[in-house]
Each structure stands twice: as structure tokens, then as C-alpha cells.
Amino acid sequence: MRATHHYVDVDELRWFIRVAESRTVTEAAETLHLSQPALSRGLGRLEREVGAPLFDRVGRGLRLNANGQALLEGARRAVSAVDGARQSIGELADPDRGTVNLAFLNTMGPLVVPTLLSGYRPRRPNVQFRLRQGGTERIEQYLLDGLVDLLLISTPGSPGIVWQPLLREPLVLVVPTHHRLAGRSTVRLAEVRDEPFVIFSRGFGMRPTTERLCAEAGFSPRIACEGEDGATLRGLIGAGCGVGLMGPGPAPLPDVVELPVSDPPCYRMIGLAWCDRFMPAAADAFRSFALAEAKPPGTWRPFTLASDSE
């Protein structure tokens, strides 16, 4: 004989909780804006669905019995979970609420990310941002695993990621202040072909970019130090450990000089990336803002928004 499956209605659980917390069925019915017969029928269905009586009849009122006491906390948790899920779903569909999960390269933390977020937050002040950062491979995996909605990244290397450029960032040659080229207005990259390089570790987008640009200049960089943090790498350069190619720093540092490179053209593209899947409305609205408001690729003063004054 096939077993009969019982399905508990969430509204009936709400009614049950209300009756359990009220002095009388009449009071509960009034609070729920139901007729007393409709409420009684709903309680009857719930008792049939759980397979046991939930109340003892005491005079004209109801009192929870042991079965009802056993159900009450579970009913409260179930209703709370449904209400929480409905709220979350509502936030997913509302661009003015919810959370944008954004990951970005470490080197974009000082300038690019603060500029974008400060330009966006006045438009939708109730939207929250949950930020992650790291190297290229790490944050691409965040996106592929569904941990973030969007990436700020140079050209991605993983399949399945959609990418659109936002801007072109110039790269500068960073040298210590006592370096022989420190007083120059521009340099050619080939002029440091024999110098030790301070460079980002593998897994960071600047690593292959540096190697490619050095190859265009006719040499392979001789690596003295490699690391994951731009501030640390700048500190190593300032201490005389070598030279390096980097994006412009957020502020001048006393121990290093940043030199524009005239040959080859040294820059990287920065863009916004996502996967072709459902995206919460808050993240979708931020994506539209970033793609519409960021100046066309090829500009940097440093990063500005199209709505800013020229």
C-alpha cells in the first residue's frame, strides 16, 4: 500500500501559532482577519496533516497539548525561514536594496574601487557592498564558484567569463629615488634590461603583462623578488632591490619615483567581468552604472567617471 504524504500549509502554521499565543480562538480569528469557522477548519486540516490532535478543548477555548507543544517551536522556525527567504528574494529583485558581491585585483583597491563606489552610493545608498580581493586566478575562481557577482579585472583568462573594458591604465616604471634614471621625464623599457626586477607572483595579471612588455622591449626580466602586494613591492624597490612595472600609485612615496614609459606603450586594460547567469538586481544595476559611467577606454586622470566635470 502506497504511503500517504502530508504537506503542511505555511498559512495553517501561522494560524496555529496565533491560536497557541492567543487566549481564545475568537481572539486569534480577529487578529488574523478570518472567520472563526474558517480558522477552525484550518486547524482541523493541520491536525489531520500532522496526524495528531494539537489542542485540548477546555470549555469554549483551546489549550496546547503535548503534541502542540512539540510542534510550536518547529512551526515558528519554519515560518521564520519562509519569511526570511521571501525577504531575501524581494531584495534580489530590488536594485535599491540587497548586496553587491564584488571582487577586484589588489592593485585596484587604492583608486579604482573607491572611485566607483563613491560615485554609485549616493544613487542607491541602501545597497551594501561585500568586497573580496586577490590575484587574477583567485578572484576568477570566486566568480566561477558563485561567491561574487562581478569582478574588476584586467583581461580574464578563464573560459565562461564575460568581460567588458572600462578604462586603460598606464603602467609606470618604478625605480628607487637614487636610481640613475630617477630624474628622467620618460624612459624606454629597454634601458633597464640589465636591472633586477621586482615583480608580481604567478597568478596575478601583472606578471604576464610585465613579461610580455619586456619581451616587446627585447629582453626577459631578471627577477630579484616576487610578491603579491603592490605596497610591499614598492617598498622593496625603494630599498634598492630592483625596478618594476606597476600601475600609478595612489600617492607619491619618498623612496621611489614613477617614470612614464615611452617605448613600448605600457598599459593594461581594466574591465568588468561576470558570468552569464542570474544576477541580483543590485549587482545588475551597479554593472550598468559602471559600464555607462566609466570613461571610454584610453583615458586615465587617474580613474574618473563620465559624470565628473572635465
By DSSP, the count of extended strands is 13
Q: Figure out the total of helices.
A: 9
SS class: alpha/beta
Question: Would you list the SSEs in sequence order as H and E?
Answer: HHHEEHEHEHEEEEEHEHEEEH
How much strand? Answer: 15-25%
Shape: rod-shaped
| Low-confidence regions | 296-310
Rounded mean pLDDT is 84
Rg result: 31 Å
How much helix is in the residues?
25-40%
Please list the strands of the largest sheet in the order they lie side by side.
Answer: 4-3-5-13-6
Distance between the ends: 79 Å
The biggest sheet, with number of strands, parallel, antiparallel or mixed sense and barrel status, is: 5 strands, mixed
Overview of this structure, please?
The chain is rod-shaped. It has helices at residues 10-21, 25-32, 36-50, 66-92, 112-120, 136-144, 206-216, 230-238, 281-293, and strands spanning 55-58, 61-64, 99-105, 128-134, 150-153, 161-170, 172-176, 187-188, 196-200, 222-227, 244-246, 256-263, 267-275. It has a five-stranded mixed β-sheet, sandwiched between helices. It starts with 9 loop residues before the first helix and ends in a 17-residue tail after the last helix. Helix 1 (10-21) packs across helix 3 (36-50). It is 36% helix and 24% strand. Helix 5 links the parallel strand 3 and strand 4 (128-134). Mean pLDDT is 84; it is low at 296-310. With 310 residues, it is of the alpha/beta class. It is built from nine helices and 13 strands.
